[in-house]
Amino acid sequence: MRMMAAQRGQPANLASWRHGALSRLLAALLALIAFAAAVPAVAAPVFPPLTGRIVDGADLLGPDIEAALTARLSALEDKTGDQLVIVTLPSLQGETIEEFGVALGRHWAIGEKDKNNGVLLIVAPNERKVRIEVGYGLEGVLTDALTRVIIETSILPHFRAGDMAAGVAEGAKDIVAVLSGAGEEVAQRMVAPPSASDDVFDTIFPILIFIMIVIVIVIIIRNGGTGSGSGGWSSSSSSGSSWGSSSGSSGGFSGGGGSFGGGGSSGSW
């Protein structure tokens, strides 16, 4: 009789256990949702105002070098219509230089709208990062391979030696040469055969792209799907930033409506 009573009690006990487990699972899920909702969204970076062809926010360039570079970049635009802007940053504000670069290019709208022929040479000395960000329309001329060569052979050697201004000047010189159709010497530096590490990079690169896409989608959903033309980053900001006001341009110089898609290369030292 006791065995029969125990057997009759098993379904009720099992149902009670399942109900309790489901309740605990639901409570844990609700707690997780509440925690996610309480975590503040990542603050959008603040972009410096576009005050000219040189925006030296990190104070790496002296007046003479800045004047010479400005003249060179102006001559390039007069000759080809291509717009090259050099920017040094006191901080990447927690972003990667790739994320910051493409968003900054779009925010400033470097290059002409119908040609997307803008280029940014970006230096972030505190994070020890450098990038050449290339607009859509110039990706076939100033290729990823060429920008990598320029960074590795012209910019980084000077940076590692502590001469930041020389690295910026040499990098700008190479970029201007390529865009002016006189980049044969730069192209000749690409003759070295790919190394085993390049093969590994080619293998894992698609995986990294997929992971990045997933992360971007999650961030967009997390921030409520709001965005702007600058990759979902707002051009406005809270006070207290090292940049101050984030206007698109000032000082009589501005972008022409060009856009960017992430072409170019980065380096570190």
What is this structure, in a nutshell?
By secondary structure, the protein is α/β, with parallel strands linked by helices.
Taking all Cα atoms into account, the compactness measure Rg is 26 Å
Helix-and-strand structural type? alpha/beta
Tally the helices: what do you get?
7
Shape: elongated
Mean pLDDT: 80
Helices and strands, in N-to-C order? HEHEHEEHHHHE
Roughly what percent helix?
40-55%
Distance between the amino and carboxyl termini: 81 Å
Largest sheet: 5 strands, mixed
Question: How is this structure best described in words?
Answer:
Helices cover 49% and strands 12% of the residues. By secondary structure, the protein is α/β, with parallel strands linked by helices. Strands 1-2-3-4-5 form a five-stranded mixed sheet. β2 (83-88), α3 (97-108) and β3 form a beta-alpha-beta unit. The chain is elongated, with a radius of gyration of 26 Å.
Task: Write out key terms for the chains shown.
269 residues; alpha/beta; 5-stranded mixed beta sheet; 49% helix; 12% strand
Question: What layout of secondary structure does this protein have?
Answer:
Elements: H1 2-38, E1 54-56, H2 63-80, E2 83-88, H3 97-108, E3 118-124, E4 129-135, H4 144-160, H5 164-179, H6 184-188, H7 196-222, E5 260-268
Parallel strand pairs: 1-2, 2-3
Antiparallel strand pairs: 3-4, 4-5
Helix pairs in contact: 2-5, 4-5
